[in-house]
Amino acid sequence: MKYDENRALLATEIPGLTSPQRGKVRDVYDLGDKLLFVATDRISAFDCVMPNGIPDKGKVLTQLSLFWFDFFADTPNHLITADVDDFPPTLAAAKDDLRDRAMLVKKLRIVPVECVVRGYLAGSGWKEYQQQGTVCGTPLRAGYANCERLDQPIFTPTTKESSGHDMPISFAELSDKVGADLAQQLQDMALDLYLQAADYALTRDIIIADTKFEFGLDENGVLTLADEVLTPDSSRFWPAASYQPGQNPPSLDKQFVRDWLDGVGFNHQPPAPKLPADVVTQTREKYLTALEQLRA
């Protein structure tokens, strides 16, 4: 295992297994009939991985995803187990490092799109709305303020790129890409999951402004929830108590890191600068707060 000086787990190597496929945050091991997902403490922003990580971040992503998989009990998901004592013997040597941050999951035929749902007008959506009155090409009524709640959540899918930026696609383009029936299923399921989660989160004093889901098809063709779910990496979380339309609220997600990077003039191109200790500490606190409040 590779740790940085802050004891953030940046990379995994498990004896006896071939090197994993490394994403921006996850290391994924192919175990033949299943996959091992390991959430490291790496953090990315503007599609750049930071040189140092956020201690315990991978555990927060995993534990929140497990919470939501249980919350959405009626929705099929890819989880087999997150109990390291039930992992195959080949993983025994890494058990302590994998605890709380790893999941054994089913192999799925992943649908190659990001299913983004927006309930509030923020970030790049707000910038586009100011210029064109649209968000990812979807027309909105006039008169919205920055960070205002939308009359209805909107589904704004994007491509799923292995590197670089995901690009918005229209529902018609999504239908052409995956088929009309599956496109409708993706939209319906993503909107339904977001509404359930957003209503629940408000009871825990958190606003879920937007999020993205990933889905796959199992061996029987059943649409299945995959990857991470409603985490501070995949969502925009705001404290409800400090929310006011027209203002950017404080975040409980990685927007804090994005704001710091913009504040130091980062050009959004690698290599990214090292995060200072106070930014690391505050980001960790935000992630833990989101986990604690949502699971309360």
Automatic annotation (TrEMBL):
**CDD domains in UniProt:** SAICAR_synt_Sc
Q: InterPro entries, per this entry?
A: SAICAR_synt/ADE2_N, SAICAR_synth, SAICAR_synthetase_CS
Return the GO cellular component terms, semicolon-separated.
Answer: cytoplasm
Q: Tell me the ranges covered by the SAICAR synthetase/ADE2 N-terminal domain, including all copies.
A: 21-264
Q: Keywords, A to Z?
A: ATP-binding, Ligase, Nucleotide-binding, Purine biosynthesis
Question: According to the UniProt entry, what is the EC number of this protein?
Answer: 6.3.2.6
Q: Which reaction does it catalyse?
A: 5-amino-1-(5-phospho-D-ribosyl)imidazole-4-carboxylate + L-aspartate + ATP = (2S)-2-[5-amino-1-(5-phospho-beta-D-ribosyl)imidazole-4-carboxamido]succinate + ADP + phosphate + 2 H(+)
MF terms (GO), sorted A to Z: ATP binding; phosphoribosylaminoimidazolesuccinocarboxamide synthase activity
Q: Which GO biological process entries does UniProt record here?
A: 'de novo' IMP biosynthetic process
The cross-references to Gene3D superfamilies, in alphabetical order and at most eight, read: ATP-grasp fold, B domain, Phosphorylase Kinase, domain 1
Q: Does the keyword Ligase apply?
A: yes
Q: What class of enzyme is it?
A: ligase
Alphabetical list of Pfam families matching this protein = SAICAR_synt (PF01259)
Return the PANTHER family for the record.
Answer: PHOSPHORIBOSYLAMINOIMIDAZOLE-SUCCINOCARBOXAMIDE SYNTHASE
Family statement drawn from the similarity comment of this UniProt entry: Belongs to the SAICAR synthetase family.
What's this protein's name? Phosphoribosylaminoimidazole-succinocarboxamide synthase
